[in-house]
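input
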Amino acid sequence: MSTTSPTGERLPVALRTEALEQLLTERGLIDPKVMDGIITTYETNVGPLNGAKVVAKAWTDPNYRRRLLEDGTAAIKEMGFGGPMGQHIVVVENTPITHNVVVCTLCSCYPWPVLGLPPSWYKDPAYRSRVVKDPHSVLAEMGLELDDDVQIIVRDSTSEVRWLVLPERPAGTEHLTEEELVSLVTRDAMVGVAKVAAP
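output
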């Protein structure tokens, strides 16, 4: 099975992945339903939904918020989330004057238990190098305009420490329940490249 087009160019990753999955399925080495289940687990169940539950709990429970900021790993474990890629998570809080954004300059270290699979832009060399040098511009290109007087702190994830951003709670959500707040929190807000929008 060729991974190049008739003109000799490499096929896009998505097509090569699909071809590989088809080949493995035809040979009886994988079950597509099992693969779909694994992907769904990491994209939806294990992923950002877990982090959103952590954030919503911190927004509605001051004692939990304090514990989360003091020892992120332990507080996240209280909610039942942990395991590989989540052994040491530090949580930092965004405020009106300080904004945290996460990057892994060396590879793509990422807190899988609370954020799921890392997005492709997070692994992109351009993001990894540019956000350190010029975070205002990179965030603006991603749709997040911050005032010049907002201090941006770039947090570099490593295999020893992974970061999770506790985003600002949007104004006008004081009446919402913890469960209702969960649906507002996005993965990008927990990485620091977006803010949580009010409903």
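quick obs: DSSP finds eleven helices and four strands in the chain.
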